[in-house]
Amino acid sequence: MADADAGGAFRGADDERGAAADSAADVFVVSNVAGIVQRHAQKLLGELQEQAKVRYVSPASIALVFAGLGEKDQALTWLDKAEKEHDGVIVRLKVDSRYDSLRSDPHFAEIVRRIGMPR
Questions:
Q1: What is the value of pTM for the model shown?
Q2: Residue 1 DSSP code
Q3: For the chain, which residues make up each domain, given as ranges?
């Protein structure tokens, strides 16, 4: 019976090490994917900004990419521009869940107020 207990204890320790290795691998994979997504978003942002030099590109769309990258100040700056240019996308600002990361910012609340949407 002692051998069975020792074997069980060893398997338990091995399971814990395996779980830790799996967890570390998961973190690595998620980090890699996040990096790929961020690089893709940065590339998209550059393309949108280049296109904006020669044709109309919705400032709210550019704001959305910045928001996705976690660059709130830039996102809010582009939403200001969208409001000034009467960008049609901005009318959904209050209900569009893609802008949720900006909602707690007082600047966002001010933009919503300026475009005539009650809070």
A1: 0.66
A2: -
A3: 1-54, 58-119
